Amino acid sequence: MSLAHWLASAPIGSRPTWNVDIDPKGALAQAKFGRLDIAVNCAGYWAPFRKFAVEDDELWQKMANINLLGTAKCNRLAIKQFLKQEVDDSWGSRGRIINVSSCAANIAFPYEVAYSATKAAINHMTRAGALDHAEDWININCIAPGVVATGMSRQNFEDPDIIKHMKKATPWPRLGTVEDITAIAMFLCSKQSSWLTGQIYAVDGGMTLGVPP
């Protein structure tokens, strides 16, 4: 059984994760299951809110390095590995990539220009990369989460004033959970999504639809 097939059938609580190191030569760590089926690029960096003019070169470089360049490198290395593998006919792919951007990549938010710009770049990289490698049976899609309680956003969730504004901007009656994001990620790993590529999935409770009433 391949990793992809096992992930699709295993209960969420029993699915382990492995860290993958990128060595100086750019080689992926040896896959535990003998091949690489899925690469999820969800590393990110966010800084406390500040106006555009106050952002400095150091902030922009760190945002670019982590949010964009690291994601791009992981995409390229995963694709190179996928191209060494045969197409899995029962799964419909040679390999899958899921990138994670942000709702800030789809619409403008104040006080986070560097973050928004690097996340928007991930969206378009997903589309362009998917176009390059669709003929290779490689799926590249992206999830753009809304306001979700994660470690990176903990500071926001501890600020009642920020939470008030986030809830007001989210049409759905609640903010997001990690399970909201993992559910769409698991779908994008499934056989049922084998004909989907280059798509950006806004999982944000309707935040990017427009101004709620």
UniProtKB/TrEMBL annotation:
<keyword id="KW-0560">Oxidoreductase</keyword>
<dbReference type="InterPro" id="IPR002347">
    <property type="entry name" value="SDR_fam"/>
</dbReference>
<comment type="similarity">
    <text>Belongs to the short-chain dehydrogenases/reductases (SDR) family.</text>
</comment>
<dbReference type="GO" id="GO:0016491">
    <property type="term" value="F:oxidoreductase activity"/>
</dbReference>
<dbReference type="InterPro" id="IPR036291">
    <property type="entry name" value="NAD(P)-bd_dom_sf"/>
</dbReference>
<protein>
    <submittedName>
        <fullName>Uncharacterized protein</fullName>
    </submittedName>
</protein>
<dbReference type="InterPro" id="IPR020904">
    <property type="entry name" value="Sc_DH/Rdtase_CS"/>
</dbReference>
<dbReference type="Pfam" id="PF13561">
    <property type="entry name" value="adh_short_C2"/>
</dbReference>
<keyword id="KW-0521">NADP</keyword>
